[in-house]
Amino acid sequence: MLRHFSFVSYATKIRLMVLTLFMMGAIFSPHSSLAQTTDFTVGGSVIASANQYNAFLNFGGPGITFDWKQSNFRIVVGVLPSLRINFRENDLPLLDKYSLSTALGFGPQVHIGKFIIATPIYILGRNLHVTAGIGYRF
Fold first, then answer.
1. I need a labelling partner for 10 at 20 to 30 A (CA). Which of 18, 27, 54, 136 fits?
2. CA-CA distances (angstroms) from residue 101 to 42, 74, 120, 134?
């Protein structure tokens, strides 16, 4: 994992990892000013998104959540494990009109109350697929 920094000793790498974790704990501790206005959590959701040739059913995965305690507004940047339905003809010769596969997307989501507006991005093969969708947060 840390072998790319060959000019640094193994003990120094461990010390840097512990220091980084300590600093993250200090930043997001309950007594810091940042923690008094935002929450750092992991949540789940279901989002349906689409573009020209694909439809995706996204299930909320891990992400970084910025939650404002004063309102029902949160911003999430995370990954979205998804089921992909491809409507492009002649993409797979064995299937006549559509195909079903899995995909992993990433991107921002805006949560307003229990509803979500999302723009998942997928890298499928050599193509970048940007989609837009709506969803519900549990």
1. 27
2. 26, 30, 16, 20
71, 81 Cβ separation under 8 angstroms: no
CA nearest 78: which of 52, 106, 50? 106
Beta strands in 8-90 (DSSP E): 38-39, 45-50, 54-59, 63-68, 73-86
- Nearest-angstrom CA–CA distance, 43 and 138: 8
Reported as a single tens digit per residue, the pLDDT across 14-39 is 777 777 766 666 555 555 555 556 66
Task: State the pairing for strand pair 115-118/99-112.
Answer: antiparallel
pLDDT band at 106 (very low <50, low <70, confident <90, very high): very high
Cβ atoms 47, 80 nearer than 8 A: yes
Q: Which two tokens stand for residue 70?
A: 């004063």
Residue with tokens 């993250």: 24
Residue 74 host element (H or E)? strand 73-86
The length of the chain is 138
Phi, psi of 14, deg, nearest 5 = -65, -45
